[in-house]
Amino acid sequence: MLKNPANKYRPFAPINLPNRTWVNQIISHPPTWLSTDLRDGNQALIEPMNIERKLRMFNLLINIGFKEIEVGFPSASQTDFDFVRYLIEQQLIPDDVKIQVLTPARKELIYRSFEALQGAKQAIVHLYNATSPVFRRTVLGLDRQGTINLAASAATLFNQLAATQPETNWQFQYSPETFTATELEFAKIICDRILDIWEPTPENKAIINLPATVEVSTPNIFADQVEWMHRHLNRRDSIILCVHPHNDRGCGIAAAELAQMAGAERVEGCLFGNGERTGNVDLVTLALNLYTQGIHPGLDFSNINEIAQIVEDCTQLPIPSRHPYVGDLVFTAFSGSHQDAIKKGFAVQKPDTFWEVPYLPLDPADVGRTYESIVRVNSQSGKGGIAFLLERDYNLTLPRRLQIEFSQIVQKFMDASGKELSSREIWELFEQEYLQPRKSLKYVSHQLYIAEDGTQMLSAKLQISNEYITVHGKGNGPIDAFAIALNSLLNFAFDLPLDSKLQIHHYEEHSRHLGSNSDAIAYVEIAGTFVTGTLHGVGINSNIVTASLIAIINAVNRSVEPANTGFNRKQINQLKQFMHPENYQNFTPM
């Protein structure tokens, strides 16, 4: 790169537009859309579409809702000519759709274009010639008047050829190609000259298209150019003012939006921004930008994945993963703070209210995307994303401290593996850590009893070291009673100090699904002298009490292992005797 690029490049001069109005405008309705995927987009492909792929693209555009489609450049390509003829002869064009073809201001090519359109019910013929100084001087070798004469001669031929095909409802369009680099007063002069020849009316308007053939300035300057033309063109009530932005500076979307604020009523572009060099303006992004502002664009992108697949198949061009609204990762959050905000947003979002989910300007469901890809977990993720996936896919609503505890386990796993974890892999890790039986204690069965004062006694049969033992405890509920029953067992079987005491620090439960047959899931957070801080356990069962007892056992098993996994018969008998209930004659089965 040059140390002083000012010696080689010069900035685009600002437009003298006192009291510009576009800065205070808002877009309140969609423009008329023109898809040029089959012309501008097609000519930018390494391998242009054949008729079969063109027809597939055409049908897609119809299904999306386009009413104006530039179907080809029939004077430049036999394939394009044949395709236009095929659409007309096979009567594949809906009555409410106008097809458009492009032709340069050359006599023989104009004849060829009108020949291709014979028999069409309605058609737009798009005339262009380059008007900027560098093209006039370097490419065409014409002065201003010669450039005007070239366009005027072509426009006159349009009138003559259209008169020979009165069965077609004709509309004419003119583009001063390289408009953005053309002197504004000259662009007006040549456009007005064409309009004088075509003599459009408010009932039969001509289209004046202002192409950013090459994007050479910031979008605000383009908006100034459009508003200047909007103010100064003759026959303004008989004109549809159109823009055709390219994306050389990466500002095609902004340029198109500001141009509409400046007076443009029609926009030409391609699906997902295909086109020469960096592409045409992306009509999908432009339309969905409107949608997120509460304005229906008049185009249907409710199945964005299918649309993207067809476009990729037809163009043989991949759509980037970060492409707005459609890329594989645009509704995906890896960052922990983003995931946490999205999770909380979904928790409070109601279907009949304004969409206000953080980091998601559009509800993915509106474009046919599922919520599967919204949150994905890698080493940058946090507890919120992990909890979101478990809740969405496995109906687990983890308590906050359990989210923190499990996220540390996931983080450790990912630091070791260095890879992204899928929702399924997270669930398997959760199962392995919190749900799979261990060699320590295993739940077998339980029975509840209640006294007249409401005190409850729980008798639970457990398996330890391939032996079965029944423990008993009294408390103000089954969870409290089971914790009390386990204290003596912990002291004996796990070689813990006699003052060791199991405490239930926190408890939550919920149903995993709707209906009476749904599983219940219980979360317990235990504390005690044998636990550093606190530790969680999880249990799942159709019976909520059983799920709670399993959760406690799983928490205990995560905290300690038996001191002796090979108890002998004498020890087991001592344990059974030690655990025998004292007196429960005042209790009745629940």
Quick description:
The protein is α/β, with parallel strands linked by helices and 590 residues long. 39% of the residues lie in helices and 18% in strands. Helix 4 links the parallel strand 3 and strand 4.
Verbal overview:
The protein has 590 residues and is α/β, with parallel strands linked by helices. The protein folds into three domains: 29-315, Aldolase class I (TIM Barrel); 336-435, Arc Repressor Mutant; 441-589, Double Stranded RNA Binding Domain (2-Layer Sandwich). The protein is built from 18 helices and 15 strands. The strands form three sheets. An eight-stranded parallel β-barrel has the order 1-2-3-4-5-6-7-8, surrounded by eight helices. It has a four-stranded antiparallel sheet with strand order 11-10-9-15. The protein has a three-stranded antiparallel sheet with strand order 12-13-14. Strand 7 (239-245), helix 9 and strand 8 form a beta-alpha-beta unit. Helix 6 packs parallel to helix 7 (184-198).
Short key terms for the protein model shown above:
4-stranded antiparallel beta sheet, Arc Repressor Mutant, 8-stranded parallel beta barrel, TIM Barrel, alpha/beta, 3 domains, 590 residues, Double Stranded RNA Binding Domain, elongated
